């Protein structure tokens, strides 16, 4: 016991031991962590401890370092040896729609038709708490199986859909952000609220869930075309009253959408200005897509410290356009990475990194695997205002981490076997990997067991 890093808690430790499980776990593998942002500092900002370990004490990371040194310093810790698996912070998916789990990979159509044909009919079902609870559980089990430990998700306009997701996240110990999706026009009547109801129902959900355990509320207008100016104003007021909440919405995804916003808001200088006038621009704002931005919009996003959330599988799937990663990073924007489930075509942040790489290539900038990994972990955490807690492996951080098998399929194994460098060994998993690569997931210090097969 005297060797424990936290001698203040030997009693708790002994009790946990007596109860049949040690509170302190030493997980061994190849440890990947970031000393800085690799977009700013280069790939060397990513550090690798080839035979390393992560010491987890309760819900926190207590230490990282060489395996041998950690074993010697903490002989009482329970050891979980993941062999040559890569140990990383859990993935952070900074924009998703959990209610669209059941309609992912629906064929065809542009954004507006896709919403009307697939999304809105499915979202109508979430007024039923039993349906919402079933999909919320299935969704979180799917993302955990893919190594994602934090999401920022839209719900539907039904408060029941928000209760279902937060309850499911709380049961799994997950740090997530979510909110009621507000719409009061250009959507089916069954999904529309009003400016007042959007405000009041969101306020009640904030009171119920925001800051409870690891849960964060995100004020969530779907996007400018499905809200009246009155509704956006009401949500801006709500955000001013609750500034520690996040705000998530969509911005500048498709060209038809830009024309629609222009027609609906003729007084606005541009799309972003619709939100800005309503008080919905600031630090803690997460704007999904951000493809067709004007110079003024880019300047204001940067000045405000808002986050731009890149959703590459969705942008390719719905044919929205090519995100300007290099240009936006160079001008100092905060960028996160996301699946945009189910407009995006995968739950996997590995597949999402691959799509970001492909879109980068189409725009003439090959993203380094260290940059991709940073976007999928620390970058997303920074975008969500959680960089001090999650998204990296470091002492004091919350213990959300994953172990990845870098030879999870024969195709990947035969390529990684020829790798001459660490990143050469990782890149085939980024490009070809999926949930089969996820060898272990820890949420808030607890190892997750694979969920049973999803039930209808
Ligand atoms: Zn979206």
Automatic annotation (TrEMBL):
<dbReference type="GO" id="GO:0006147">
    <property type="term" value="P:guanine catabolic process"/>
</dbReference>
<dbReference type="Pfam" id="PF22039">
    <property type="entry name" value="HUTI_composite_bact"/>
</dbReference>
<dbReference type="InterPro" id="IPR006680">
    <property type="entry name" value="Amidohydro-rel"/>
</dbReference>
<protein>
    <recommendedName>
        <fullName>Guanine deaminase</fullName>
        <ecNumber>3.5.4.3</ecNumber>
    </recommendedName>
</protein>
<dbReference type="Pfam" id="PF01979">
    <property type="entry name" value="Amidohydro_1"/>
</dbReference>
<dbReference type="InterPro" id="IPR051607">
    <property type="entry name" value="Metallo-dep_hydrolases"/>
</dbReference>
<comment type="similarity">
    <text>Belongs to the metallo-dependent hydrolases superfamily. ATZ/TRZ family.</text>
</comment>
<dbReference type="GO" id="GO:0008270">
    <property type="term" value="F:zinc ion binding"/>
</dbReference>
<dbReference type="InterPro" id="IPR014311">
    <property type="entry name" value="Guanine_deaminase"/>
</dbReference>
<keyword id="KW-0378">Hydrolase</keyword>
<keyword id="KW-0862">Zinc</keyword>
<dbReference type="GO" id="GO:0005829">
    <property type="term" value="C:cytosol"/>
</dbReference>
<dbReference type="InterPro" id="IPR011059">
    <property type="entry name" value="Metal-dep_hydrolase_composite"/>
</dbReference>
<keyword id="KW-0479">Metal-binding</keyword>
<comment type="pathway">
    <text>Purine metabolism; guanine degradation; xanthine from guanine: step 1/1.</text>
</comment>
<dbReference type="GO" id="GO:0008892">
    <property type="term" value="F:guanine deaminase activity"/>
</dbReference>
<feature type="domain" description="Amidohydrolase-related">
    <location>
        <begin position="87"/>
        <end position="446"/>
    </location>
</feature>
<dbReference type="InterPro" id="IPR054418">
    <property type="entry name" value="MQNX/HUTI_composite_N"/>
</dbReference>
<dbReference type="InterPro" id="IPR032466">
    <property type="entry name" value="Metal_Hydrolase"/>
</dbReference>
<comment type="function">
    <text>Catalyzes the hydrolytic deamination of guanine, producing xanthine and ammonia.</text>
</comment>
<feature type="domain" description="Aminodeoxyfutalosine deaminase/Imidazolonepropionase-like composite">
    <location>
        <begin position="52"/>
        <end position="77"/>
    </location>
</feature>
């Amino acid at each position: 016991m005297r060797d424990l890093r936290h001698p203040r808690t030997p009693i708790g430790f002994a009790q946990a031991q007596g109860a049949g499980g040690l509170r302190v776990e030493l997980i061994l593998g190849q440890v990947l962590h970031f000393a800085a942002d690799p977009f700013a500092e280069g790939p060397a900002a990513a550090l690798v401890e080839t035979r390393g370990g992560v010491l987890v004490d309760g819900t926190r990371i207590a230490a990282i370092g060489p395996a041998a040194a950690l074993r010697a310093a903490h002989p009482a810790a329970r050891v979980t040896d993941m062999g040559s698996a890569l140990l990383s912070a859990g993935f952070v998916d900074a924009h998703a729609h959990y209610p669209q789990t059941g309609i992912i990979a629906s064929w065809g159509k542009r954004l507006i038709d896709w919403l009307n044909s697939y999304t809105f009919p499915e979202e109508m079902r979430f007024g039923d708490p039993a349906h919402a609870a079933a999909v919320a559980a299935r969704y979180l089990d799917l993302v955990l199986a893919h190594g994602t430990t934090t999401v920022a998700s839209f719900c539907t306009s039904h408060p029941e859909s928000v209760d279902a997701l937060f309850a499911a996240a709380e049961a799994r110990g997950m740090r997530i952000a979510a909110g009621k999706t507000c719409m009061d026009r250009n959507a089916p009547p069954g999904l529309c609220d009003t400016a007042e109801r959007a405000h009041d129902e969101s306020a009640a959900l904030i009171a119920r869930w925001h800051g409870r355990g690891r849960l964060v509320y995100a004020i969530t207008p779907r996007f400018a075309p499905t809200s009246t100016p009155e509704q956006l104003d009401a949500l801006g007021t709500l955000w001013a009253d609750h500034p520690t909440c996040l705000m998530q919405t969509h911005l500048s995804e498709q060209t038809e959408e830009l024309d629609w916003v222009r027609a609906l808001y003729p007084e606005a200088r541009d799309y972003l200005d619709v939100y800005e006038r309503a008080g919905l621009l600031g630090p803690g704002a997460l704007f999904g897509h951000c493809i067709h931005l004007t110079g003024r919009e880019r300047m204001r996003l940067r000045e405000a410290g808002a986050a731009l959330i890149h959703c590459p599988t969705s942008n390719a799937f719905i044919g929205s356009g090519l995100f300007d990663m290099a240009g936006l990073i160079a001008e100092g924007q905060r960028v996160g990475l996301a699946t945009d489930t189910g407009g995006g075509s995968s739950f996997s942040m590995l597949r999402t990194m691959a799509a970001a790489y492909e879109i980068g290539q189409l725009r003439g900038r090959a993203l380094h695997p260290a940059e991709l990994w940073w976007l999928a972990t620390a970058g997303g955490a920074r975008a969500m205002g959680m960089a001090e807690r999650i998204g990296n492996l470091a002492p004091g951080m919350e213990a959300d981490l994953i172990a990845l098998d870098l030879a999870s399929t024969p195709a990947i194994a035969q390529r990684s076997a020829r790798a001459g460098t660490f990143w050469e060994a990782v890149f085939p998993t980024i490009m070809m990997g999926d949930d089969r690569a996820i060898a272990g997931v820890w949420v808030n210090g607890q190892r997750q067991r694979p969920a049973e097969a999803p039930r209808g």
